[in-house]
Amino acid sequence: MKEVEPMDAARQRLDEWKARMESHAADLAAANEELASVKATYQDPNGVVTITVDSSGNLTDLVLSTRVQRQAPEETARQIKDALAAAKRQAAQLTSEVAARRFGADSPTTKALTDYARSGLDPEES
Question: Which ranges form a coiled coil (predicted)?
């Protein structure tokens, strides 16, 4: 017959488990806050286009210099696409670094966050 654990020992184990879960929840909240604040800004080499994206790679700001008036619209479009791709790569890298610092480089959480951050990149960019 299996021996029953004393009530005090069981309460202590539950209290320890609860403390670990509360600590983990606080860590997740802090990581979520830090990830929410990730922003990446990229300016093309000619200084014509500046793009900022959030941690998910969503465009949050686009600034065009007055030089766009002196170039072909196709050139401006290419610069915007290139700058957006570069900013998304930077955001994915920053997101991965935050996750690795918070959860460990080899954790499943870091892998999931990194995979999500890279999911918006073109396959050859990730």
Answer: 7-41
